[in-house]
Design brief:
By secondary structure, the protein is α+β, with helices and mostly antiparallel strands. It is built from four helices and nine strands, in the order E-E-E-H-E-E-E-E-E-H-E-H-H.
Length: about 130
């Protein structure tokens, strides 16, 4: 299976990606996750203003095959939510690293971002699960 893992992102072992810009981190699910889920039919996201801890569920993603929690790769306050996903959840399948983003989190502890996997380490992690 071929998966896309852009080098400019960081990754969690729960299959979320994170892109840092200043003290804000945009979060979504990885190409591997969306391939495993299949056709995404529903995404439930929190309201802006919710505070999450690293590793804590912040929403739910539902596909034709499964329902899964979305886990925050970093802790902080959710300052932006991709409301378009309520109308077009298929964006997660079509462009998981672009239009399919989920939330933007204002970092509480910038070192948490540094602790995420880089693209090579995440690729190795995915391979280790599928062997």
């Amino acid at each position: 299976m071929s998966i896309e893992t852009p080098d400019n992102l960081r990754y969690s072992k729960e299959d979320e990606w994170a892109r840092r810009e200043g003290n804000r981190v945009t979060v979504g699910v990885t190409d591997y996750a969306q391939q495993q889920l299949g056709d995404v039919v529903f995404v439930e996201l929190p309201e802006a203003g919710k505070v999450v801890d690293r590793g804590e569920p912040f929403g739910v993603i539902e596909s034709v095959k499964a329902v899964a929690d979305l886990f925050s790769p970093v802790g902080g306050e959710i300052v932006e939510v991709n409301a378009a996903l309520s109308q077009t959840p298929e964006s997660v399948n079509e462009d998981c690293y672009g239009d399919g983003w989920m939330v933007v989190i204002e970092l509480a502890d910038p070192s948490e971002y540094d602790g995420l996997l880089d693209a090579a380490a995440y690729g190795d992690f995915v391979k280790s699960r599928s062997d």
